[in-house]
C-alpha cells in the first residue's frame, strides 16, 4: 500500500481514534463518514459504504434487494474468480434466484427484456475480470440496462466491477468507476485491494436511498471492517484525490517506464563485478503481466534479468531464492530464472543482492 496508508494505519492502531465518535456533535457517529465523503468526491456517486471485501459486497446487495427474487444476468458473465468464488454460488447463498439469459458469447437487450417480470429485482452486470471473450461476441452495456429499467420503472441495475479503477490506465478494459456511475446505474461494487491498491475491502457506491438500506441491514454488522482498514482506505483515497498516483504501488508499478527498470537492473548487477562472482546475468526484453488475473491479455513491455549460475541449474536457483533469508519469488520460464525489476524497488535491491551473494 502507499506510505500514507501505512503510516495512517500505524497512527490509528497505536492511538485513540474517532472512528465512531462525532467530534462536532460530541456523540456516537458513523464509521462510514470519512471514506464516504472521499468516495463520493472521487466517483460522483450519491452515497458509499465499505464492507469486508467485494465478495461480501455482492452478497450483501443480493441478499438485501433480491432475496427470493430474480436476478437477471448474462451467461457470459457467470464467472469464477481465484479462490473458487462463483457468482452463481454466491447468488445461491444469498437466496436470490438466478435467471441466466443469452449465451456464453452473445447476449442481447431482448434477452434481458424478455426476462423481466414482477419477480425481477436486479439486472446484474459482472465485469469479466480475469478473462476475455473474443470473436463473435455481443454484450449489453450498463447504460443500455439503465435505459431498459427506466422503461419498466424497475428493476435495479447493479454492476459488480471486480477490480474497479479510480485511475485511467489507458490500457486493458478496466472500467473507471466514475464513468460507470455516469451511466445512471443504481449500485456498483468493487474491491479495495485489486487495482485500487488499498486494503482488503469491498466498496459499494450508488443511489443514496439504496445505500442507506444496505447500511441498516443486520448483515452489515457481520461484514463490517476494522478501523485499520478504514484508516488505510482513507489514506489511499486521499492519494487519489490529490492525484498522487505514483504513491500507490499498484499504479506506480504498472506505469513504470522501461528506462527506470533498466536503471534498477544496473544498480543490481553493479554489485557482482568482482572475480569470485558465480552469477551470469543477461538483460532480455520481456513482458509484465498484471497480477491476480486483472487486465487479462495485457502484456506490458519490460526488461528482465535472466539469471544463471556456474554450478546450479535453474530449478535449484529458483528454489534457493525462495528459501533465502528474505524469500524471493522469481519468474521461471522455459527453464530460465527471470527477475522483473518492475516490481523490485530500489530499496529492495540491497536485500536481493544479499540473498544472491549467499547462494554458493
Ligand atoms: C475479485 C472479484 C470479486 C471478489 O472480490 P474480493 O474483493 O476479492 O472479495 C467479485 N467479483 C468480481 C467480478 C471480481 O473480479
TrEMBL record:
Enzyme Commission numbers on file: 2.9.1.1
Cofactor(s) named in the record: pyridoxal 5'-phosphate
Subcellular location: Cytoplasm
Broad EC category: transferase
Any single GO BP term: conversion of seryl-tRNAsec to selenocys-tRNAsec
GO CC terms: cytoplasm
Keywords attached to this entry: Cytoplasm, Protein biosynthesis, Pyridoxal phosphate, Selenium, Transferase
GO molecular function: L-seryl-tRNA(Sec) selenium transferase activity
Pathway involvement of the protein, from the record: Aminoacyl-tRNA biosynthesis; selenocysteinyl-tRNA(Sec) biosynthesis; selenocysteinyl-tRNA(Sec) from L-seryl-tRNA(Sec) (bacterial route): step 1/1
Main location: cytoplasm
Catalytic activity: L-seryl-tRNA(Sec) + selenophosphate + H(+) = L-selenocysteinyl-tRNA(Sec) + phosphate
Entry-annotated residues carrying N6-(pyridoxal phosphate)lysine: 194
InterPro entries named among the record's database cross-references: PyrdxlP-dep_Trfase, PyrdxlP-dep_Trfase_major, SelA-like, SelA_trans
Family, per entry: Belongs to the SelA family.
Matches recorded under NCBIfam families: selA
Function according to Swiss-Prot or TrEMBL: Converts seryl-tRNA(Sec) to selenocysteinyl-tRNA(Sec) required for selenoprotein biosynthesis.
Protein name, UniProt field: L-seryl-tRNA(Sec) selenium transferase
Organism encoding this protein: Lentibacillus populi
